[in-house]
Amino acid sequence: MRMRTVSLTLDYLTIEQLIELIDEPNRSICHAILKDNRQLFEQARGSTHNHQTWDGGYIDHVTDGMNYTRHLYAFDEAFGRPLPFTMSDALLVFFLHDLEKPWRILVDAEGRASNREGLATKAEFKQFREDKLEAYGLKLTPYQLNGFTYVEGEINDYTSKRRVMNELASFCHKVDNWCARGWYDYPKADGDEWTGASRVRTV
After folding, report:
1. Contact 52/188 with Cβ under 8 angstroms?
2. Is residue 190 part of a domain?
């Protein structure tokens, strides 16, 4: 069996352009989330210690990961094996997967990052994200919710008796793991090797 030809244009889109690739009604809701919280997103760090740890690293991580999602989906699809989820599903999950971080991560006067009290456990992260989605009226399908829940892996829900993560969760986990552990310091502030990629400039 021959693999289909993969078109490697490798263009790098803005977060607004990437949201445009998400199906309605979630597209409009994601635009609203970005618009309402843009200033906060551009100030928040991507994590407390491990990846995109600069101011603005949160939106940089999400944008970089969504770009990687788009191209990796096209690559995986080219093999001809069925993907039981759409690119829109994957982009949606990645856009939302760390939604608590701009509210969770605090930075003190010395530049040290820590988690806000009451928002420090995986269960609290999950509840905060789900509350945000409810506030915006964004309803995930059961399949999308599995992807959203297990982007970071099965963790304490792992069992050898059944598969916990579905295919969407596995794909988004693949993207997030590489962006957080492989490309943890990307996009670069200047001279990124991926043409068009750059960090959000914070004031």
Report:
1. no
2. no
Structural domain harbouring 90: 15-182
Q: Is residue 189 part of a domain?
A: no
- Specify if 119 maps to a domain: yes
pLDDT of residue 110: 84
- Tell me if 191 sits within 8 A of 182, measured CB to CB: no
pTM for the complete prediction?
0.91
Does 117 reside within a domain?
A: yes
Asked whether the predicted pLDDT for residue 202 surpasses 70, the reply is: no
Q: What is the DSSP string of the chain?
A: -PPPPP--------HHHHHTTSPTTHHHHHHHHHHHHHHHHTTS-S-SSSS--STTHHHHHHHHHHHHHHHHHHHHHTT----SS-HHHHHHHHHHTTTTHHHHEEE-TTS-EEEPTT--SHHHHHHHHHHHHHHHT----HHHHHHHHTTT--GGG--TTS--S-HHHHHHHHHHHIIIIISTT-S-SS--SSTT--PPPP-
Place of tokens 């906060």: 40
Query: Do 26 and 102 meet the contact criterion of CB atoms below 8 Å apart?
Result: no
Number of domains in the chain: 1
State which amino acid sits at residue 83.
L
